[in-house]
Amino acid sequence: xxxxxxxxxxxxxxxxxxxxxxxxxxxxxxxxxxxxxxxxxxxxxxxxxxxxxxxxxxxxxxxxxxxxxxxxxxxxxxxxxxxxxxxxxxxxxxxxxxxxxxxxxxxxxxxxxxxxxxxxxxxxxxxxxxxxxxxxxxxxxxxxxxxxxxxxxxxxxxxxxxxxxxxxxxxxxxxxxxxxxxxxxxxxxxxxxxxxxxxxxxxxxxxxxxxxxxxxxxxxxxxxxxxxxxxxxxxxxxxxxxxxxxxxxxxxxxxxxxxxxxxxxxxxxxxxxxxxxxxxxxxxxxxxxxxxxxxxxxxxxxxxxxxxxxxxxxxxxxxxxxxxxxxxxxxxxxxxxxxxxxxxxxxxxxxxxxxxxxxxxxxxxxxxxxxxxxxxxxxxxxxxxxxxxxxxxxxxxxxxxxxxxxxxxxxxxxxxxxxxxxxxxxxxxxxxxxxxxxxxxxxxxxxxxxxxxxxxxxxxxxxxxxxxxxxxxxxxxxxxxxxxxxxxxxxxxxxxxxxxxxxxxxxxxxxxxxxxxxxxxxxxxxxxxxxxxxxxxxxxxxxxxxxxxxxxxxxxxxxxxxxxxxxxxxxxxxxxxxxxxxxxxxxxxxxxxxxxxxxxxxxxxxxxxxxxxxxxxxxxxxxxxxxxxxxxxxxxxxxxxxxxxxxxxxxxxxxxxxxxxxxxxxxxxxxxxxxxxxxxxxxxxxxxxxxxxxxxxxxxxxxxxxxxxxxxxxxxxxxxxxxxxx
Length: 726
Fold this sequence. Notes:
Immunoglobulin-like; globular; 4 domains
């Protein structure tokens, strides 16, 4: 269990203390040593059969499927005969069988002629099932017993440890596991390299079940061009405590790593890549450091390094969009229109509630209306400028960052949820920031200052990022590929479009005069507009649940309760002494503590259930489908992307779309960018997409994929799939 999950549960326990729930400390000091919890005895009296017996202490159990038996020198073991265990669903291992109290095993064996000792390794694993609930690591006992008279001898055969002994000598015996069952290194760790663009590679390691790869024991270099620098973007792995390396990150099953190639490639069409890496068999041996060399034709081929030889597979998709063809002026016009339409998107509307109230509060004062408009615009433009500079800087350094990428960070999502919750409490009247509450237009007009208007503009930009308005996608794509000055101009024009309605209200008196007169009725309106804020906080909490699961939601709820307590006491302490105001600071610090631990919560390890009719995106699977001549509809999406969800509801998650897939023989492939995913980021970068949604339709006969607009219609998708199936 990760440190983040421990921290999450600790903080939830602390929250329970606030309402008086006692928390009992549990100590692991009373746990039995593994050999006392599971006492193993052996009976070799019967020739050809070894009987094993475990006496299991109360409140402990053994896993049936975690037992392994390995014969020593001159001993060949048959299949172990074990009784059926009790059915049990394990949090990590799934459906398993377990034993309580006692268990007996019978293991048939044969011995090579001349063998005098019955030697074998017995591996087993079990858990303590009451508090403190822990599982022991796999434990191995070496047995050395006298062979009974008349034990059957096997035909003469080589009685050496073979490949397993060699691996143990080279990589070190882990003290647990059946080394003789270990696969050769070429089969245990298959290595491939795919060129996805002129300056980008995708590396892939594939391991059978029970094998893992170390992240930090991997080095990469270009053999025939040492001046080139390789920058891998490793995806999140599995936290693992290693007896040699300490706390490390490892990968099971398969890992795909996008790699940037930095430097002057010149006229080179091929690169020879050397990868050195190390991995282990879970509960078994560790392999020595392995090196594989592969030759990759940049932008066109796959090289397989399973045995250190080159092996080409069908061509990869070519880069479909080298440079944006539109002019700067056209991009600026699209950006202005996209920013203007962004005001109507559902993710921006809650923040516009704040701005609408502040504009109404300005009443008949032209100076006040202009101040609101200018400070709000300043906040919007400053935020867009910072986003533009950050994206340009990170992309020039070889990192992938897209529109809305900040919502891939769980801490940002949680902080935004708390901000929306706090704004909602303010609009509901729980707390007032600024002047005291009044019932007249004069009191309302004095409540918000320039800083509040500026912050509202910043908040509008932050929450606008999950939305992509029509015209906006093309403008952002231009900005992501254009020179720095042009890119910043596009981002600033997006900001101008977003703030344009309020600029018009502030600087066109005839429009301002059409606004309702301020009065006591506005307090009711303000309280009503608090509910979109609460709904936005709920939506952000849902996004967080998709990213980090129930532990993160528990921490967020604790933070929200503490935040509500902070704001409540802040309002009560206005006319109190210094001690009351210091308590506000203490409560504010306590509010930040759950958010701090939330950043340490890891993504849930359990895989989500597959959606019927949807294939998860991987470059390898896409290449296989294209090689087979299958049309493919690729959908890059994210849970925080409002435009993605709207397209799914209107077009993609419908019976008509599923019928269209069946009619055209197309495969629906989906990539989830809710969390950081370098593989999907590489695909987005390949198509010069500023973020999600990205829709690409690959035709049946091969060739380049067709990129669709970010806002879909049924007719548009139908035409694209019919064309792709011809």
